[in-house]
Amino acid sequence: MAAWILQRKGPDMTLRRRSIYLYVFGTVILVALIAPASFLNSSRYSAYASGLQATGVLIALVLAVITLDADRHDKQVDRVLALHQELVTGAIEDCRVRLIDHLRKRGGGRHVLAVTRDDLQKDPRLSSYDGDLEYTPFHDANTILRFFERANAAIKAKTVNELLFHELIIRHALWWNTAFRPSSTPWVGRSALEELASWAELYEVVHGTKLKYLASWRTNRERDFGHDVNA
User: Fold this and answer.
1) C-alpha distances out from residue 110 to 107, 150, 160, 179, 231, Å
2) Rounded distance, CA 193 to CA 145, Å?
3) 191 and 184 in contact (C-beta within 8 Å)?
4) pLDDT in tens, 118-173
5) DSSP for 140-205?
6) Fewer CB in 10 Å around end: N or C, the chain?
7) Cα R_g (the chain), whole angstroms
8) What is the number of alpha carbons within 13 Å of residue 152 lying toward its C-beta?
């Protein structure tokens, strides 16, 4: 959560830093142009000004690169926040809540029942919700999987901030990767969960010591599913 708050403050802090950098840069160039005028003759001042101008252009190019990189970072953060907002609100949130409640009831009320595609399509006990609902568990599962297909495409295309993506999206991906078990019948969309789990595993190998929340993720999944789960 702390990293999320820090990332959300990031764009505003970046804008303030850019303003300060530009102000300092402009002041330094102005002083550097005016101060030598009193003790340099015209020819020396002209040469000095030309050199200073070239230096200013170089610094401006460096600042432009820094600004572009900051803009890229801000857009990547915004994309993760948009994905997370899509996951925890609206239609996808409704699907998640319905399906989790359903699988918890079928798991005895304490643990969530992990299911396959065939379970949600063919098992009378699992293939429909209690009551006369217009949605089915299989419909909701596929809606959730389509979200993770989009999330997986984003991480493959490197259009998101990886640290924030791992913290906000991967926890849910690992949870649903446990809830949706593989079966002999192909389940389009589930491969995205498997790829996200593989990406997370590699990411954690490199950054694991910094990811203090991993233990709580595992504990949460073990509590929900009632057995040991993969990291």
Assistant:
1) 7, 31, 36, 14, 22
2) 8
3) no
4) 999 999 999 999 986 789 999 999 999 999 999 999 999 999 999 999 999 999 99
5) HHHHHHHHHHHHHHHHHTT-S-HHHHIIIIIHHHHHHHHHB---SS--TTHHHHHHHHHHHHHHHH
6) N
7) 27
8) 20
Amino acid identity, residue 190? R
115 three-state secondary structure: strand
What is the pTM for the complete model shown? 0.73
Which whole-number Å values give the CA distances from 177 to 41, 84, 149, 198, in the listed order? 75, 17, 13, 11
| Both tokens assigned to 185 | 């019948």
β partners of residue 180: 115
